[in-house]
Structure formats: structure tokens, C-alpha cells
Design goal:
294 residues; 4-stranded antiparallel beta sheet; elongated
Amino acid sequence: MSTVLALLATAAGIAAALLFYLASPQQQLRQLPDFEVFNFSFVRDDDGHLEAGITGLDIRHGTRGRTWMRTHLDPYTGTVDTHDLPGHMDGWDEAVNAFFALHFGSYGGNPVRWLYVLMGLAGAMLFYTGNLLWVESRRRRQKGAQDVVQKRSARVLGCLTVGVALGSVAGISATVAAAKWLPARVQDLELWHQAIYYGVFFASVAWAFARGSGRGAVGVLWACALLTLAIPLSSLAGSWGLGGSWSHPGSWPVDLTALLAVPVFAGLARRTRRRMLHGHADSVWSASVRAPAR
């Protein structure tokens, strides 16, 4: 009986809140004149009291995300709690919010967000190519009259560079492509996305150690190309209503970026294979250098 009463109270609270929003959506937000509401949600606490939250944007202030400005209100009275909103915080919370805005690039609109994307790609390429150059420069410093014998530590570093750097790319592509198919098939989306990402990631690391850094890089780069190509193909399948997949009109920038990245990965795979077969025989990236796992 108590459970039924609790459910009825929750339903009554939600109904009252919905009527309140529909009847006077601006009245309860009069304290936030420049706050653009995107959505609102309701949560019932342990005591059975209904709590409401509003998510939206105020372009005058930096936020943790595009819609990360969130406030709470009492759905029974419409009283707005503004202390979590930029412009209403104390000094410490404002400073923390500024760091979040810088971290996520949630200021300056889409140009800043695309700039952050390019900066992230540049940083990833710097890490990958920097490790490649460091390992190769070590060989050149040690080279004398005879070929250098690559130490196990150098071979391990080469495999880690390939497996970790490229494996993360392959894992992200796999989980983004899977996002088009999973909602219609599984319940725990977060668990499945984690399983897919880490499965591909650790498989890439294992492949690099099993095949060696040179051969491993070629295989993982081709995997990156194929898994990245799966992103726009999954969206295309969703637009055609195939296999329970879905497509959203706003996802086309992601699909286009993935489509442009496919020939880049394929080109890197071909060049890496050429270097592996025709490069210096004593290089850690050569096909003749055995994997550290052997």
C-alpha cells in the first residue's frame, strides 16, 4: 500500500510540475532572464520528494559543456535554486567552472570547439610521431660499422607506441560506430561501450606485441581505417532503416570527419608497410626485427 501511495505521490508531483511548466514556463525562470532552457528532468529522492532539474545555456557565461548549466527547482512551488549557475556562484565555484570551460572548450561557439578538435588531433599526432622519431634517433646514435641490435626495451616501446596510440583510435571508432546499433539491442549502453572500446584497445596492444611494432602498426592502421569507415556506413544504414540502426541529421559532421580520416589511415598503413619492407633492416620498425613477445 505504501508503494502505491508513493507512486501516486510521484505521479501527482510530475503532473503538477508539468502543468506548472506548460502554464507559465517563464514565470519560474524570471530569476534567469537570459537562460535558454533545453530540457528538464524529475528525480524522486529517498524520502519520496520530487526534485526537478533544468538544463540549458546562458551565452554570457562559460559552461562545462554546451548544455551543462544546470539548476534545480522545487516542482511544487517553482522556486529556482540558482547557486550552481554561472553568475550566481561564489568565487571558488566560478574559478572551477572556468577551468571546466577551458578543458571542454565550451565557449566561443562552434569555431572554438572545432579548434579544440584540431588541437587534440595535433597533440595525438605529436605523441605518436615523437615516439617514432625518438626510437629511430636512438638507432642512429648507436649505429657504427655494424647494424644495431635492437634491445628488448626499444622493441617494447615500439609495440606500446603502436598498440596504445593507434589502439585508442581504433577503439573510439569502434564504439562510435556501435552507438548506431546498440540502443535497439542492449540495455546497459555504458557497459557495452566500455567493453567494445577496451576490447579493441587491448586487442590492438596484443597484436602489436605478437607481430612486432612494424607489422603490428600496419595491421592496426588498417583496423583504424575499417572501423572509422564503419561510422558513416552505420549512419547510412540507419537512414535506410536497416538492421535496427539509427541516424540523426546532426551527426553528419562526425560522419564527414570519419570519412575524411579513412584515406589518411589507409595511406599511413601503406607507407608504414613500405618502410617495414624497404627501410633500414636494423630499425625497430623493420619486418626483420622480431617481436618482444617471442
